[in-house]
Design brief:
The complex is a heterodimer of chains A (about 500) and B (about 325). By secondary structure, chain A is of the alpha+beta class. Helices cover about 30% and strands about 20% of the residues of chain A. In chain A, helix 8 packs antiparallel against helix 10, helix 13 runs antiparallel to helix 14 and helix 14 packs antiparallel against helix 15. About 0% of the residues of chain A have low confidence. Chain B is globular and about 85 Å long. The mean pLDDT of chain B is about 85. The chains are: A alpha+beta (about 500), B mainly alpha (about 325). At the A-B interface, helix 6 and helix 12 of A face helix 2, helix 3, helix 5, helix 7 and helix 12 of B.
Amino acid sequence: MRRWGVVVLSVVIAGSVLAAASAQGSRQGGTLRAALDRDPPNLDPHRSTAAVDRQVFQSLYDKLVDTDENLRIIPMLATSWTISPDGKTVTLSLRQGVKFHDGTPFNAEAVKYNFDRMQDPKFPSARRSEIGPIQKVVAVDPATVQIVLERPYSPLLYVLTDRAGMMVSPAAAQKAGVDFALHPVGAGPFRFVEKIPQDHIALERTPDYWAKGQPSLDRIVYRPIIDDNARVANLKSGDVDIINIVPLPQIKQLTQEAAQRGARFTLLERGAFQWYGVWLNVTKPPFDSKPLRQAFNATIDRTVIANVVLQGAAYPAFSFFPNGTPAYDPGWKIPPRNLPLAKEKLQAAGRPNGFAFTMLTLPGQQDQALAQAIQSMAAEAGIQMKIETIEFGAMLDSMVRLQHQAGQIGWSGRPDPDFDIYPHVTQSGIGSFNFGGYANPKVQELLDAARLLNDMSRRKRAYGEVTKILADDMPYVWTHFPKEYKLVSAKVHGFVQVPDGMMRFHKVWLSP
Amino acid sequence: MTLFLARRLLQMIPVLFFVSVIIFVLINLVPGDAARLFLGEEAPPDALAVLRHEMGLDRPLYVQYLRWAGGLVRGDFGHSFKDNRQVLPTLLQKVPVTAELAAWALLIAWTIAIPAGVLAAWRRRTVVDYSASAVALTGLSIPNFWLGIMLIYLFAVNLRWLPASGYVSPAQDLGRNLRTIVMPAFVLGVVLAAVVMRQLRSSMLEVLSADYVRTASAKGLGARVVLIRHALRNAVIPVITVMGIQLGTLLGGAVITESIFALPGLGRLAVESIYGRDYQMLEGVVMFSAFSILLINLIVDVVYSLIDPRIKLAGARS
């Protein structure tokens, strides 16, 4: 009996050693199936506006620079960069010998073409405001390009880690015109094969990608699975290998399941990138009154939202800078819920018995749960909040035109802190991202000054001051920073999670 | 018959014209700015203006309509606002998925509902009748998203017998096609079956109490012949009406079922077009649905006359 046990055990060990060896040997090849929360609408990085497009772009387009898992800027198509002492010229040295998927060489002229394309008034690009301060781009020699700015612009390098830094093939873009999104050509590790709307996007490996030994995968298939429960179930059943958005209310259960022995998937967590909360329209009653905004804010229990409603899948928030991002300040305290203060502020505003307002919110289990929690918190101070559930396009329309009273919506986050705050609380953002209709000369001045500073610790000080003003004026009631999660099959190896939530598959390989 | 068909087909033209006006106006009444949804929240005003011009949205509404309707007549359904994809080929890509799903759902519904409805009526007020009705009511009250997720967990996650989602065309791989379509077809079929079964039971009850059924039994015909040949054939007419309506609805796309099983059908195309204010794509989907409902009505009318020769098609020579 015991002898048999030993034999069985050694067979098992030998078998698993062999399996491990073959897994090592078969690093090359395979098809990775990634599920997305919605169908990417547009595959042209210069015209894309949906966050989900960026997931596919990570494989299709290389950028001038990228961010690592600690959100530091690292070389990609640009190997190094220098900023002139006056901060108005950024010089990039370009990687040589790189080709786009159609064979067009990548060089300084190609970079210049890309910026011209984004700034072409006849080709409305969604990137225009991000690269607004760029005056011109000069090709110094084939391997060097100069970006000349109207004024110093500290967010520039971070902007280039995103869609504005994604290089498209000039030859292909010229040929396809407005149809470029149907035939996307970049310089990324994977090239475009096909897109069947609402079904899949298929990419295949670029044979002569510039980074040696990359990529390992033969193919990537992105599949939109819009139902939260179905997306998780598809990962569990092995129909997909990774999912981009894990529903926060399921985090607790998935953590337990992933910790079980023999679990076929892991749940990865790394930092936070998005902010979430409630916009108060300061141009319309009732929230044109500052004490009423403060009263509403004082009723919110951020710890309950993060730990009870979202079961720990978020950090409580009281600024625009999520935990772990460059401008995050751990010294900034989350104020506790304060009902007496709320009553006091209501009294001060001449509304001791409270007031009523309507908050717009998006459909979906999570937004509804958050709205209901806020509703009951506010009610305890006599503030009657009506919840109006509305579809995204209609909500955007109402909030851009400042027709709402309040609206619950967040922001997907950007690697540079500037875009997490600037367009949301300044005059220039009214009609676009400033859903509070809020403007304050002091805030404007501080944020403009921060754009000129290249030193993050000094920028951080400016953001701290702005946050203090906003915490008093309260055009936006921050509630939480959702944590960044990925649900990954145990077959997937070499996946590095970056807090920006984007899935980079350059180094990923699959075990059988 | 030919005359009848020709007349009915000609009658479709004014109906489709009214449908096209109504959907065009309704879609343009929906709040939301297509150009802004395309360019993003931070779009500068001049870029928005250029894009509106590119999309033709800066013209008066009647000009936009005439341009679109003129295109329809020539077979040009326009382009998607999202990535300039052509509407008609995209639409035609979705039709086989939705049509296959609808066909299987109907087949499953008939297979369950017809025997159940006949039995329930024949064995009226017995255990058979009550349990069939109970099952039907349950089928009717189960939400499809719940049933869909439960099936996925049972057959895809736990048993690993079926893929959890996706679509493979039968031309590509028939086996995989059937394995992907069976769960969504069942989810849709169960609800349809419940409706059809209830409808069939009540119309069977009516027919079974008719004189000619009593006569047939009195002649000494067997229960099976009476039930199938005499009763069912007459009872099935109102059921066909219901099936026609159901089929029309199914061809418009089964949004929830398609979403849960990630099927690239017409329903999801419609919903994504609404969310993105992709006007021309949405108009194309709605026009197609309207056309298929008209066509199904025509087919239903023809089927009536085949089943019951007493029903004459107007204009047909007798």
